[in-house]
Amino acid sequence: MRWLTVGLLAAIGLLQYPLWVGKGGWLKVWEYDRQLQQQKEVTRKLEIRNAGLDAEVRDLKQGYDAIEERARFELGMVKQDETFVQIPEKVPGK
Question: Are the C-beta atoms of residues 58 and 51 closer than 8 Å to each other?
Fold first, then answer.
């Protein structure tokens, strides 16, 4: 009877090994699930960035407001009849 119990436990162990550690085992499934969640997070961030870029491209194609804003802030341009005034920041200690 003792050998039968040991034999059955060994058989159960041999049957469980591929389930947990084998090629399609639970450990692999959990690892793939973790990788999938990470990739979904990366994809979500990229979709948000792409939506912002898409909105900016549409804005640049349709109107001059975005172009004017970029010219003013990034290139320091002013309109023809405007006067540019720059006020220097106060230096601490003076």
Answer: no
Distance of CA 45 to the CA centre of its chain: 3
pLDDT digits over 20-71, tens only? 777 777 888 888 999 999 999 999 999 999 999 998 888 778 877 777 877 8
Is residue 66 within 8 A of residue 59, CB to CB? The reply is yes
27 contact partners, CB below 8 Å, separation of at least 6: 20, 21
